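for the recovery benchmark. tokens below, seq after
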């Protein structure tokens, strides 16, 4: 009787979650994990103690034989977007679960998901799980009996980092038409821009100070004012308006965010004449706040359309960002990549607290919309460079790891962290600007003029406006062809020969390959049962939106 129940439940599991096939659940070896004595758990008391009313996705480490599934089912049924995701790593516990009658009801519920960790590459396995759940309020807990297990904290660390990445990527693609608008509008500026990709090694062995907007920056403002002719100074994101207000001369400002938040940050700038370096995805309205001069970065991170424009406009020089870690989600990593590309040495971080101080994340009254709204903004407890307890966020923990990863890939460059507070950066020696003064800030140069001349000498040459106009024509033509092909696809039955041929032609189109290559992923993201449906009506609306943008900006 027990074996028959077990086998039926095994089949249910395999029917829904094909990744369990490798466990060979009905083999004699796995049958040996069946409990000799029934020991069903009641989860009523445990589940009622959980604070999960606002949670949409509940990740649960572990599983076991359960006498009744009702408490979890009641929670799931209250909101259709809820999901319970079991992360399992013990065959014995999985066998106990499958031996219970309650397993059938659980496995048939569309809000239940099961994943088994092989623990061969924990980071990649957790990443696969996180990619299926990019949205919602998340919580990670232990099943009764798993509390205190060493693997819990390791899974938790990976899980929330990967969820942060999954969320960022999903939102990027979901709002891709908005980014496409920025992309095209910024391309129209090419005739007046400098190409940063032409400046490789242009500032060889000149120190570069990369400024963040952390609370510790305030105590370094007076020192920074004295260093504008002894070291290059670069500000990213919120640090741009902060240094501007403090009247600290700086040589480069860098921005990459495609959202309105970037505009609000730059709008706080008082006077602004420093060179402004940006990527094509930048929120295009920010230029209303700036005087320039402007420089464009060829970035290897982000959408494939960056590579398309490089090919069509035949841009010079190399791409920036090949050393950047996937967990880099802030402008700081692009600042670091740019400083490295320019040949700067040493590279010094300042105001990079990556932690709160007295409840503040930035100097003064700077506030952002980021706080507490995203998965990555969840607070975490950690230790600072002096081993004192501090409060940080998941994103900041990811950022220090990403910067450290970049540093490890650099040979012959010295890195220092003159923040003198906060989370710290592995590979960057903790020090102060004052201590670095004698050895690295001992040569006086007119660096502002040097930067200005370098940017003037790296502007676009030749018929760039003609190439841009031609690119717009090609985009419009390819998008129209995509729409025509989708119309033909919608007329044909799924799987028919004609439809297959139309789909192959669609996939060969330039616009599809560079703008819509992952549209099926966008349509398949769901907190309920994921069935990848090729919703060509949705794709058609995406393509028509892109075509409207091209015609508007042409």
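predicted aa per position
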């Amino acid at each position: 009787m027990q074996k028959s129940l077990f086998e039926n439940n095994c089949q249910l599991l395999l029917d829904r979650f094909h990744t369990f096939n490798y466990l060979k659940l009905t083999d004699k070896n796995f049958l040996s994990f069946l409990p000799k004595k029934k020991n069903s758990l009641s989860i009523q008391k445990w589940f009622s103690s959980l604070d999960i009313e606002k949670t949409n996705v509940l990740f649960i480490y572990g599983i076991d034989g359960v006498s009744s599934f009702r408490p979890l089912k009641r929670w799931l049924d209250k909101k259709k977007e809820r999901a319970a995701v079991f992360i399992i790593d013990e065959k014995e516990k999985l066998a106990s679960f499958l031996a219970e009658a309650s397993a059938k009801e659980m496995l048939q519920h569309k809000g239940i998901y099961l994943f088994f960790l092989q623990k061969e590459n924990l980071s990649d396995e957790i990443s696969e799980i996180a990619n299926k759940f990019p949205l919602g309020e998340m919580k990670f807990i232990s099943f009764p009996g798993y509390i205190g297990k060493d693997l819990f904290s390791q899974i938790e660390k990976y899980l929330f980092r990967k969820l942060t990445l999954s969320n960022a990527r999903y939102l990027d693609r979901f709002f891709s038409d908005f980014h496409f608008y920025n992309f095209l509008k910024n391309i129209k500026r090419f005739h007046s821009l400098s190409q940063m990709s032409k400046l490789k090694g242009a500032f060889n062995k000149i120190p570069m100070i990369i400024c963040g907007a952390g609370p510790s920056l305030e105590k370094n403002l007076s020192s920074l004012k004295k260093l504008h002719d002894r070291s290059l100074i670069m500000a990213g994101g919120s640090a741009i308006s902060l240094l501007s207000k403090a009247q600290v001369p700086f040589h480069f400002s860098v921005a990459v965010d495609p959202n309105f938040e970037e505009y609000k940050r730059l709008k706080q700038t008082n006077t602004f004449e420093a060179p402004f370096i940006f990527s094509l995805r930048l929120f295009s309205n920010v230029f209303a706040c700036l005087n320039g001069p402007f420089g464009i970065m060829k970035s290897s991170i982000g959408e494939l359309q960056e590579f398309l424009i490089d090919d069509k406009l035949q841009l010079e020089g190399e791409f920036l960002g090949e050393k950047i870690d996937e967990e880099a989600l802030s402008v700081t990593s692009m600042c670091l990549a740019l400083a490295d590309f320019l040949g700067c040495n040493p590279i010094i971080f300042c105001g990079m607290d990556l932690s709160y101080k007295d409840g503040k994340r930035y100097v003064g009254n700077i506030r952002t919309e980021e706080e507490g709204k995203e998965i990555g903004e969840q607070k975490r407890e950690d230790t600072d460079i002096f081993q004192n307890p501090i409060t940080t966020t998941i994103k900041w923990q990811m950022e220090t790891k990403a910067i450290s990863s970049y540093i490890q890939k650099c040979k012959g460059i010295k890195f220092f962290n003159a923040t003198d507070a906060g989370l710290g950066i592995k590979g960057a020696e903790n020090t102060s600007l004052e201590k670095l003064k004698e050895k690295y800030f001992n040569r006086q140069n007119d660096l502002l003029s040097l930067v200005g001349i370098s940017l003037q000498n790296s502007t676009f040459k030749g018929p760039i406006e003609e190439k841009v106009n031609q690119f717009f024509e090609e985009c419009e033509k390819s998008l129209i062809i995509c729409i025509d092909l989708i119309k033909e696809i919608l007329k044909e039955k799924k799987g028919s020969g004609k439809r297959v041929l139309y789909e192959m032609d669609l996939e060969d189109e330039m616009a599809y390959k560079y703008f819509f290559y992952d549209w099926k992923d966008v349509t398949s993201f769901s907190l309920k049962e994921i069935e990848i449906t090729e919703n060509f009506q949705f794709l058609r609306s995406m393509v028509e939106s892109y075509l409207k943008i091209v015609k508007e900006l042409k």
